[in-house]
Amino acid sequence: MSIYEHLVLKIARRWVAGSSMQEALEYARQANSMGMKTIINYLGEHSISKEEAESSTDEYIGLLDAIHSSGIDGSISIKLTQIGLDVDYDTCIGNLMRIVRHASIYDTFVWIDMESSPYYEHTVSMYLDVLKHYKHTGLAYQAYIKEHSLDIMHILESGGIVRLVKGAYREDARIVYRSKRYVNSSFRRLMRILFKHSKGMFAIATHDNMLIEEAIALSKEQPAKDFEFQMLKGIRDDLKHMLVRQGFRVAEYIPYGINISGYVYRRIRERPANLLLLARSLL
């Protein structure tokens, strides 16, 4: 194992529940005991064969069974490239439908993560197709994408459920906002759209104090709105607990598995201060 891989593994312990499903379930139980819902993700992306995509799909089927049998208050979140989008459209939609059909047995919610811009249109299209068959599905929507308002309105008008995130992939400046100022401005604009136009549940997924305070203010203006805060495992635990104490619904995103490099890289990129964790791991 290289020094880099060793450091990644050490830092990942803060953000990843472990390599196994059982470790993720155990952490989910702990989160439930502290008043939080959970979103469990099996790490992985860019499957290059139908067999690999099917194996990831099988893992999610088993995870749905385990969440139900364990009595955990939780949902799952998947990446479409993990279940075949890089292979072909039919493979991916077939695996996605298999997952949501199994989720419907338990009435378990399924989130679809948004990936980099080349997958944007297919991801939105697949989500809207699946939504026609299973309403308990939601889509992550990235605020740093420059063209967004019409799409998010179309999703909401179709009965979709949105998880609003900032976005953490390295993208061309012609496609996304890169400065924190513009990303936050876009996030605020989209958040106001959600509070004004969403007819069902939606999620505000950020660790940013100012954006959370604005969401709280908007919730007081429209107290009937059904929303929750979503945050990553290992980040801002103090804030999660404070929001729970204040009566807000909070869900913790809990990844597990061995394919951790891409996930850790994005956590560092979206918040450079996380590099300090690497320095501490050297001590």
Essential attributes:
8 strands; alpha/beta; 51% helix; 283 residues; single chain; eight-stranded parallel barrel; TIM Barrel; disordered C terminus
How would you describe this structure to a colleague?
This protein has eleven helices and eight strands. The chain has 283 residues and is an alpha/beta fold. The chain has one domain: TIM Barrel, CATH 3.20.20.220. Strands 1-2-3-4-5-6-7-8 form an eight-stranded parallel barrel, surrounded by six helices. Mean pLDDT is 90; it is low at 277-283.
Describe the SSE topology.
Elements: H1 3-15, H2 21-33, E1 37-42, H3 50-70, E2 74-78, H4 89-106, E3 110-112, H5 120-131, E4 137-142, H6 149-157, E5 162-165, H7 180-197, E6 202-205, H8 209-221, E7 227-232, H9 237-245, E8 250-256, H10 261-270, H11 275-281
Parallel strand pairs: 1-2, 1-8, 2-3, 3-4, 4-5, 5-6, 6-7, 7-8
Helix pairs in contact: 3-4, 6-7, 7-8
